[in-house]
Every structure is written in structure tokens, then in C-alpha cells.
Amino acid sequence: MYLLKSSCCLIASVSLFIAAESQSLENINIPKVEGDITLDGKLDEAIWSKATKVSLDYETRPGENTQSPVATTAYVVQNGESLLVAFVAEDPEPSKLHYSFRDRDGWGDDQVGFKVDTFNDGRKAYNFFVNPVGVQSDSIEDDVSLSEDTSWNGIWFSAAHITKTGYNVEIKLPFKVLRFPENSDKWGIDFVRFYPRGYMYRLAHSPQRRDINCFVCQINKAEGFEGIESGRNLEMTPYIVAQDSQTRNPPSEPSWQGEGVDWETGLDLRWGITDSSVLNATINPDFSQVETDAAQLDVNTQFSLFYSEKRPFFLEGAEYFRTPFTLLNTRTIANPDFGAKYIGKNEGHSFGILASRDQQTSFLIPGSLSSSLARLTDVNGSDIESDVFAARYAYDLGEKSQIGGMITHRSTDGYRNSVAAIDGKYMITNVDELRYEVMYSDTENPEQLQQQYGLAPSSDGLGYRVNYSHNGRDWDVFATHIDFDNDFRADLGYKPQVGYDRQAFGVKRNWYGTEENNDFFSDYSLQVKGERVTEYTDQKLWDLATITLNANGEYRSGFTLVGNVSYEFYQNNWFPQKYYSHSGSFYPVNALRVGYNIRWGDGIDYRNARAATYQEYGVYSNWQVTQHWSFGGEWQFTDFDVEQGQLFKADIFNFDTRYQFDQYSYLKFVIRYTDVDYNAPLYSNPNQVSRETIIDRQLLYGYKWNPRTVFYLGYSDNGFEDNTVNQFERTGKTLFSKFSYAFQF
């Protein structure tokens, strides 16, 4: 009996593999029906009997288009206004379903969903997923940049229902959420299930070949969209924010200073001008960031840290402005008076235009060995506002190639920075590609920057990047050349290092395990890489050789081991270095993830230009205690030594706990803690403190009916302790509330 069962499974797997190789799936015909559904996850409406039935037969990860271990069926239909999709996800052990009430986009649960390539060009897709209690996750997947943007949020509707044999999901996706060409007739579409057990199984309707270097391009096609329209796609979101903030600066200013409650109101507008283009605009825009950034160690760093964007206005259509180098980093637009953005795509042409006026003008001053953050102020120390503009255009060449251009501009009286760039991707074969980017900047520096940073009154610079890569099933190869003039600046972007050229080359070998052989690891790889960086003066800055071992396996585990040998030139000295790192994570049970990272070896004390050694240890964990209550914690310890002794040691602690009442409301408590002990006598600065502790805390209640209809009420404070005060002193405290409501017409 066992032999017969194994033979049947083998025959099924071989048949599926042959089907996957031939990519012979028939197009899905999506019928149009009258009426609507009641979202309850029970699939008891007559509409579903008229829907097209689709099975998810392939396990695409960790298996390679093998037979799905569980049965999943999708039903799809459209009614002229919305795409209606339902899933029946069967499970032989429904007690092992992994799910929780949580905020949107918390990937990792049991989930079912689908992706749609509305322009049918194999480049980008919208992803929509739902877990067994109806919590949504969505994103935009981009084959051009090989990235996925989970910060994008659409307003769509879903419900789920747990059954005795698994769970069901119903989804209603209004067409006005999507951008698509006029007279659409065919879309790319796939139906996917994530099934977390020993591995994170990915089950799908479309097979996924590993010898093709794209994902969206491999999904099946669906017909039946003739005559659809986005309709009156107008959304208005007024908001109101109340904030009472107080600050002080002990020990010199121990008294709290504040101006009472500050009220802000405004309006966000989203208008789908056509089916394929959207205008976003704001009046007194809400650019508030509700949740705090995680603490990062900025001791002994050469270049400024990068913080990701979290504000809704900038997240809408962010993929239209994405370039290989980050020429537009919207976190540099700190406090705008207004904002307007127009994005769209049609017949292979895509574009994005952004304009704003920022009340604060701050940006990076990059260099070959370090960077600084500059901020323009007047004679009274007040911020100077500036005008901001960015535009991006891209054109699709053939099936998988693209060429694009980007312009950014920031200016005020006596100051200007403009950047113009051309970039592209050319697919030579299914696994070989060439990417390139050429950038030019023109800058006028005010007297303040000339005096503070020794800059010339005006400057211009050129930068470029050329990259070849081969990403096959078993072998990956890449070669990169990068060159930036010393005077290149991208003040609206994130480019902290200039004045160098870089050559890099790497080879990676991939292997895959199978469940049939009881392999613990589902995939593992070995990569060897070499790199050389030379300053614009022809002084060699860095030679580096790296070997990396990666492995993923049971218990949803992942491990990385890296060894490096380098020679680094810094302030007229060569520093030979050997340093290593090891990291890993796994799920001992589905509700608990545990991870760690270790780094050790030779380093450089950049402040005093001397050799050093360091050890870093970190652990982190995410624990879903109940379906409603979760913990997340991260601790990082750094010990940094020079020949004379320990230079500093640092502890960083990020802690979050959250109680999610239901799909919409939650209570969250956050602590960000940084503690650094300095060996002051070993620093050349006579005012060096011996200890510095920084703490940020936040208590936040949130209610999200959808991504733009929200209510927040919170309290946050921060403070420090060092040798200038006798105890921990708070330096800021804020009580805030925010309410916004999205009206859709």
C-alpha cells in the first residue's frame, strides 16, 4: 500500500513538473454576473455557482512545482464594479491553523490570496491576501527592481470563516482600487496559499520555474475584463490632529516649555482621473508619523543612517519613483506645506510627478569616507523652506526590458540641487540581464554651507553604475562597476558616499533539498565575492573578499555564515581586517520566532583613526502569545576595543507589545532604549561623556477601519542620562490624537 501511494505521488509530481516546464495552463475565463455578495466567508450566495473554479495544484516552495500537500480551490467572477474571489482552503489538521488578530500586512500566518498584473506586461502585480480570521495583507510586487513593497495599502473588503475542514475566505476587490489600461481584455493572475507547518509552503495555481529570472512574468492569464471601468474614483480624506508637546534641556533648562495644544486640520485627495492614472493632492497635508522608528546604533559610523518611509501620502505610488540608487528619499521632505503627485501608466509608458514645499530644508553632504546631515537656517536659527520637485518616466521595451529617466530638484534663495538620471534594464536571456544608470547633479551652495562644510559656491558631478547578472536555477553570477565624482549630490535622495569607484564580482552556487530524501534544508547556497573601492584621487580605499553560506530548512529556519578579509585605507593608514558574522532564525512552534546574530573581528575606530576589534551579539523574538496578544523584542550588545583598552560598549533594546482587540483596533506599548558606556580618557575630545542613555516610550491606541479611516490616541516621551545630570531626565513628552475618514465617491 505504501509503495502504491509513493508511486502515485511520484507519477503526480512528474506530471506536474512536465506541465510546469511546458507552461501550458489554459487562460482563465472570468464570467460577468449580476448582483453582489455578502461578505461572511460562507460562500452560500448563488454567484459562486457561476464562478470559474481554479485549483492550486503546485507547491512552488520549498518544492519545485511538486504536488500540493493540501487541497485549495479558488472561485473567481466579476460584476462590472468588483473582482469577486473566494477560497476553500482544506486542511487535514485544522487545529494546526496558524493565525492571529493583528495589524495589516503581518505576513507569516496561514493565508490565501491572489495577485493580478492589470497591465498584463509581466512587470508588476498587486497582491491581496487574507488570513483565517479576515486580516488583510497587500503589496505591490515589482519584477523590474525584483522587490516587493508591503507599505502600499488599498481599500478592499474581505471576510473569513473557519470550518471543520479548514477555512474559507471571500474577497471583494473594487476595480477603482487598481490602475489598468483602458479597454482591458486580459490580465495576469495567480492564486496562492501560504501554509506554515514545518516549512513555509507556497502553493499556487501557476507553476514557478527557477531558471527564469522573474516571477510576475510566469503567472497565468485571465480573460473577461472587457468593458470594465474604475468608475467615479474619487476619495477625500479630511483629518484632524491635536498635539500637546513640551520640551526641556536639563541641566541648563530644567523647566518644561510648550505652547499648549496645537490643532491641525487638512484634506487629502485621491482622484482616479483615468483607469490608469491617479492624482494625489493635499491641503495642509497630514505628514505625521504615528509609530516610532526602531533604535539604531550611530556610534563609530561613517555614514548617516537610513530610515524607511511610513507616511501614507508618500507611500501611494512610491514604486513609480523607484530607481537603482535612491534618488528620491521622501524622508528628506520633513514638514511640507502642501503636496501633489500624479502617477500613471498606459501602453508601456509609466510616469510619476511630485511637487511640494518643505518648511524645513535638510539633506546629506556626502563624501568618500563619511557623510554629514546639513540643515539650512536663517540668521535667527529658524528653518528655511524650499521647493521640491521630482519626476520619473519609464518605457517598457519588449517583454522584460525597460528604460527610464528621473529628475529631482530642491531649491530656495541662494541654494539649488538638481539631479538628472537615465537608467535601464535589458534582459539578454531569461536569466541574464544588464542594468545601468547614469546620473548628473548640479548644485549651488549658500554661504552657510560654504563656511560650515568648506564647499564651493557651485559644483556639479557625475555618477554611473553598470551591472551584469546571471540568476539561474543552480548558478548566480554578477559583475558591477560604480563610479561617482566627488561633487555629486542627490539632496532629495539617499546617497551618503561619493567620490569613489567600485568594482565587484561574485559567483554563487545553489542547491536544493527534497522532502522525499528527508533533507532538513530545503535550499542552501555558497557565494564568493570580491570588491575593490578607489577614491576619486586614485587612492585605493578598500579591498574585500567575502564568502557567504546561506541555508533554509525545517522549522521555517534560515541561517547565514559570512567570512570577510579586507584592507581598508582611512586617514593615510592601511588597516588589514578579518571579520565574521553568523545569523539565524527559526520557529520552534508556529507562534514563536527566535533569531540571533553574531559579528566579531577587526574594525576601525573612525573617530581616532586607529585599529580596533569588536564583538556584537544580538537576539530577537516575536511571540504570538494568544490570537490577540503579541510580544516583540530585540537586544543588541556591542563591545568595541582598541589597543589601550575597551573604547565603548553599547546596549540597544527595542521592545513592542500589542493587544489586538479585533481586526480593527489595538493597544500598543513601545520602548526604545540605547545605553553607551564610553572610556572617556581614550577619546581625543576633552568633553566626551562617559555614559549616555537614551529612552523613548510610547503608548498608542489605534482603530483602523481601513488604511485611511483611522483614529489614534497616544502618549510618548523621551529622555536621557549622562554625566551632566544625576539621574534619568525626560526631555520631551507629547499627548496626541488623530482622526481621519476616507469618503469614497
Automatic annotation (TrEMBL):
Per the record, the domain of life is Bacteria
- Gene Ontology MF: a single term: carbohydrate binding
Which GO biological-process labels does this protein carry?
A: carbohydrate catabolic process
Q: Which Pfam families match?
A: CBM9_1 (PF06452), DUF5916 (PF19313)
Question: What residues form the membrane-spanning segments?
Answer: none
Q: Which UniProt keywords apply?
A: Hydrolase
InterPro entries, alphabetized: Carb-bd_dom_fam9 (IPR010502), DUF5916 (IPR045670)
Q: What is the name attached to this protein's record?
A: Hydrolase
The source organism is Kangiella profundi
